[in-house]
Amino acid sequence: RAAEAEAKRRRRENPAIRAAEAEKRRRRREDPAVRAAETEARRVSRRTQVFDRQFRDNPFGYSCSVCNRVWFKKDLTALPKWCHPTLRPAFPEADLTSFHLCASCKQSVLQGHVPHLSTTNGNNCPLPQESNVPT
What we know:
Elements: H1 2-13, H2 15-30, H3 32-56, E1 60-63, E2 70-72, E3 77-78, H4 84-87, E4 100-101, H5 103-110
Antiparallel strand pairs: 1-2, 3-4
């Protein structure tokens, strides 16, 4: 194995071999079929990264603190401190600093209203008993 590595190192240091390998790589890159295959491979890789970012790295099963509906984790945002007075009457005993809201509830709170879908307004979206959803 060491002898193989040494032979590779010597080939890399030889200017004639380096030039020949560079020319071979250049011709390969200029080949339309190779370019098309590499372009498609990059597209697939980017699509995979987008999928990972949107789904694999974004677990499902987190509930909105106001309406109790279930969302992906990245669909919930922390309640801004300046919105605490809006929700304090509806949730007097709750720790509002730990609240995470869905876009619908956040929009209502930003407008100065308690959301219509709030659990304090009688809305209830219970999780099924056999659910594997984290609470």
